[in-house]
Amino acid sequence: MTIQSPNHAATFAPQLRVAEDTAMIRAAAQVTRDLAAARPAIYWADFLGSALLGYTGLALAMTASGWLAVLAGVVAVLALYRAGLFTHEIAHLRPGAVPGFRTAWNFIIGVPLLVPSFMYENVHSIHHTRIRYGTAEDPEYLPLALMKPWTVPMFAIVAVLAPIALLLRFGILAPLSLVIPPLRRMLVARYSSLSINPEFRRRAPEGAFARHWAIWETAASLWAMTLLALVVTGVVPLREFAIALAVVSAVTVLNQVRTLVAHLWENDGEQLTVTGQYLDSVNVPPPGLLPALWAPVGLRYHALHHLLPGVPYHALGEAHRRIQAAVPADSPYHVASYPGLTGLVVRLVRGGRRP
């Protein structure tokens, strides 16, 4: 989903204009060399357990009533959110690292929730490109801290409509685009990526990735059309459909809130060093417990992830502990750690009010 980019002041955070701290980068790489391998058993157990819990909670929320339905809905949101965030791991996993995982994720989460992995693959990698991070070419960056004060709540609120937008994209626009070439070009360029930069335009897929895209877009479109038909004909009651939409909407909003605090969003289009990117990103390490819920699957270590994007999610906690012990007290590595969500949101909103 995207939001329009309002006018903002031409300011730039000085702390991001830093030279490369090669000592920090070297130390981080050296002490984490043995953590780079993904462990398939962890991926499968975590993902399948989260998906099972999420769908069980969703079924109970749709059929129960009262506090039981509410509690089941909360469980469904948190568990499906966790299962969904494995798309981030898929975007980083080396081919063959966890055999069959991408296919299973698409069958279990990507198609049912209408967010197949092609919408994130080959998009998220641009965000990690050193010369594109934080620039106008970055699909996952907006200088939110430099924008108008209303931008931050607007950024979260638009996520409420994401499930409806996805139903429209896959259930109606995708089939129509097969016979309307201009619509197809627009759909590929503007509505086929999980991005926040409204200026980002995606290129048409090629080769093996084009086949992968076609398979999962077709599957998602068939599912969306079937679901809409079942609701229109009354086979799926409107109440249950509305509950499912509310759960998926809550998942999207939660992810959007997490995105709000994944970075400081203080770069105004300049190319940054890796150290500058790290300082514009956020770790929320222990002892806080809540980040395990709102930033699961390793995303509580988002700054570290930008420093070492090849380290799998299950190893980031250990990597953080090792790097903390290896670098001196005045290392910029310590600067990117924050205590929790509230302070980060307040900082972002206050930043948005800067002249």
TrEMBL record:
GO terms for cellular component: membrane. The keyword Transmembrane applies. GO terms for molecular function: oxidoreductase activity, acting on paired donors, with oxidation of a pair of donors resulting in the reduction of molecular oxygen to two molecules of water. Keywords: Membrane, Transmembrane, Transmembrane helix. It holds the Pfam family FA_desaturase. InterPro entries: FA_desaturase_dom (IPR005804), Fatty_acid_desaturase (IPR012171). Residues 66-334 form the Fatty acid desaturase domain. This is Fatty acid desaturase.
